[in-house]
Amino acid sequence: MRLDGPESQNIEDRRGSRGGFGGGGFGGGGGRIAVGGVGGVALLLLCLFLGVDPSVLLNGGAVDPAPQERSAQAPSGNPSGASGQEDAGRRFIAQVLGETEQVWKAQFSAMGRQYQEPRLVLFSNAIQSGCGGAQAQMGPFYCPNDQRIYIDLDFMAQLQRQLGAQGDFAAAYIVAHEVGHHVQNQLGVLERVERMRNGGNSNALQVRVELQADCLAGVWARQADRERHILEPGDVEEGLNAAAAVGDDRLQRRAQGRVQPESFTHGSSADRVTWFRRGLENGTLQACDTFKS
Q1: 71 secondary structure, DSSP code
Q2: Among the four 82, 127, 257, 279, which has the fewest Cβ within 10 Å?
Q3: Model pLDDT for residues 184-216, shown as the tens digit of each residue
């Protein structure tokens, strides 16, 4: 990827924070995820799934009015204790987020609307979000309650290695997918889905939410490349590979040796590739209506 634009200023670096879970959240005692009787299989699935779960995030706890955070403009001296490699990762994430801000500001302006930028929180191991407590093993996620994206850089890199979805554009796809959930939140999609969920068929609705976020990630890449030529040879292939790597069928087969389509929450590998490609090729919001059919 060619990232020459300014870094986003909407980064909160909470790595090394002692905030942890605070009170409540999803965890068991000592901040550990309660995996129940299925043990490692459930933990692996938690580790591999990426995205937003409306059943958790839209019904989460109240937003912390004063979350513990570390400013992105922290003084020199590496106060977070991050290594040079982690700082490079932070800069990359900030540049990708900056690119998404430019694209979505322009897209919303064309609709006569104002884009409210999300915040992106870097954390280590565990975090207290506006949607409750979470551990890194959940993967990157978006919380609509506080309009923040949460990423543990170490765990995201581990996920990429485990899934064979490496490369800078694959990492950018993950960030852009979570930003896609913020775009959905800004457009009222998540709120409408939450109302629709009361009628049942929750998994099918969630799949549509996730596939739309994949499509929006494609829209971002198309628009950013059109305006600033960010894509280099091999980048599109990295993005398509990443989309395929996080398909429910592939993850389930890897975790438990069988596929259960009725339990899909994010869509099959083929569907995720299809919708990411659709956004990439069309570059418009109108192309991303996963709720039409």
Answers
A1: B
A2: 257
A3: 999 999 999 888 877 667 788 888 999 999 999
